[in-house]
Every structure is written in structure tokens, then in C-alpha cells.
Phosphotransferase (Shouchella lehensis), 264 residues
Amino acid sequence: MELFLGEGWDVLPAGGATGEAYVARQGDYQLFIKRNSSPFLAVLSAEGIVPKLLWTKRLESGDVITAQRWIQGRELKAKEMRHARTAKLLANIHESADLLDMFTRMGNKPLIPSVMIENMHLQVSLYCLQNEVVDRGLSELERLLGKLDDTKYAVCHGDINHNNWMRDEHDNLYLIDWDGATVADPALDLGLLLYTYIPEEEWEIWLHSYGEELTDSLRLRMYWYMIAHSISELLWHHSRHNEEQVRSYEKNLSYLIDSSSIKR
């Protein structure tokens, strides 16, 4: 990486699950460098969703290197996810026709609930997993599948953890780390955010800032995708023998099903 940038640059790992992100420094000047980042980073940058994209270059190896403006900022705290600004930025993302058009032209297929269930069953079979909580979750998904209303699909981030929301030194808000983005029902993002960060009695207020009403349909879809997310995460950790995380998701999934107000 240093050879690619030229003399005088210091390059250090920036962390993250992929190990493909770096901080490049030359004196007081810094860049955020990433190898093979999301191919629609340019659109995200143009719409102000991520820090400004400065340049993109393809290496002889075929890898694509992107450089973004380094922001002097911080991650959002969990309690800040309740703010109206967070809701409005997520609404802008879900409403972006340019994002959806680019993602679709790249050949990405929408995440269909029935296909999600099928894939989870395949994983359970592949891992020879016998888990009562996962079985309950899959049964709940199947029970409610026919009750899901058709909805307008959008580009969803897929991992709206507060650590992926950044506020810079000028108070601009960004949502970073788009490697897991997909075309799906916006309830996928909304469910994970609301269930994780927003007290249920505040859902209507938060959704008002987002620009949506808390209908029975939306409540059901958020519940459905939250169960699907919990099962998927449990299976992911099971495949990597992270038993503590598996137990944590078992507990959360069981509570989610038992405490739900969705009509049986």
C-alpha cells in the first residue's frame, strides 16, 4: 500500500471485520483508504451519506483502491440513535432512487422473505444444527410469511449499529461501512434500529421524523425481519464456534418471540 501511494506515506490498519481498511498519513494530512469497497461508494459520497470520495484507482492485481476524506469525528453513542437526524438520514437513504438504480444495474437481486427462510433452512441442515430456539424462530417466520404486505423495496444498509454512524467536526452525520448493503424492505433496517435503540413507546415519534406511520403492517414486517436477523446472526456465530454469542442470540430470539404483541 505504501508503494502505491508513494514516498512519505505511513499506512496503518484502520480496523474493521474485513481487514481491508487503512489510515494513510503524510504529515498532518490523512486519508481513509479501502481496498475493494462498495462499488456504489461514488453515489453514497455524492448524496452526502458517507465522507467525500476523493479518488478511485484500479491496481494491476485487479483490486480497486478508494480514498475518502478523513473526518475528525466520532461514532454515535447508542442514545443518539433516538435523535431525529438519524431518522432523517436513514429516510434519505431508503428514498434514494440513484442508489437503488445503481444497485439494481449491478445485478443485485432483492432480498425476498421466502428465499431468506429457504437459505436459513439450508444453513441449519448444513450445520446439522438442532436448536429449539432456532426452530421456534423459523416456525414464526413461516407462520407470518403470508401476512407480509408487498412494499416498495430500497437499498438497505443491513448493519445500522451505532458504531457505523459518524459525526464529523462540522456536525455532519454519515452512515459508513456499506459492504453488507442489499435491496430489501426498509423494515429490515427499521426493525433492527427500533428494536435495538428506541423504546417502543417512542417508535411513533421516531418514525414521524423518518416520514412513516407506525402501521400494523410496518410493525409486523419489522418484527419479521428482526427474527430473521437474529437467526442469521446466531447461525453465523455457530459456524465460527462462538458459543457465547450463540447463547446471547438464543436468549434474545426467545425473548423477542415470547414478548411480541403480534397476534398469534
